[in-house]
Design brief:
single chain; alpha+beta; Glycoprotein, Type 4 Pilin
Length: 151
């Protein structure tokens, strides 16, 4: 009898329910660590879409100013209201003969990038100032602002 039990036990191949549960628990812990890190890196990479869009606005504004002596709206400068990859909505919130303010607002999944949801650049004469924040107050402190703008 004992030898039959030993032989039967030796013939069992495969995984028990406990083995499977342990493997799933390990996989869940690893995923719980990896997914937030990946999301953060993805949001940071998507900010490049805003940087490119704002640079396009800046170039188009300067071309308009050199021809007409003033800055203008997105329509006047020929820039669309969304960034190339669609992660940001673009606006020119103020403009005159001396400067303009361009804003990139995170859209879709990028709107979870709370610290850098709103990004703005203000051109006043030859001076450029960059701001960012969770809302239209653009209230990020200098270190967070540099991180949003990759400065």
């Amino acid at each position: 009898m004992l030898s039959e039990r030993i032989a039967m036990h030796a013939r069992q191949h495969g995984h028990t329910l406990i083995d499977t549960a342990i493997a799933l628990a390990i996989a869940a812990v690893l995923a719980g660590i990896a997914v937030p890190s990946f999301d953060g890196a993805l949001r940071k990479a998507r900010r490049a879409d805003a940087l490119i869009a704002v640079a396009q606005i800046q170039g188009a504004q300067e071309r308009l100013r050199s021809r007409g002596g003033r800055y203008g709206t997105l329509d006047e400068i020929g820039v669309g209201s969304t960034s190339r990859s669609g992660h940001y909505t673009l606006q020119v919130t103020a403009f005159d003969g001396d400067g303009y303010t361009a804003v990139a607002i995170a859209a879709g999944p990028q709107s979870r990038d709370t610290a850098c949801r709103y990004m703005s650049v203000r051109a006043a004469g030859a001076d450029l100032s960059y701001a960012s924040g969770a809302d239209t107050a653009f209230a990020n402190a200098a270190p967070a602002n540099r991180q949003c703008w990759s400065l």
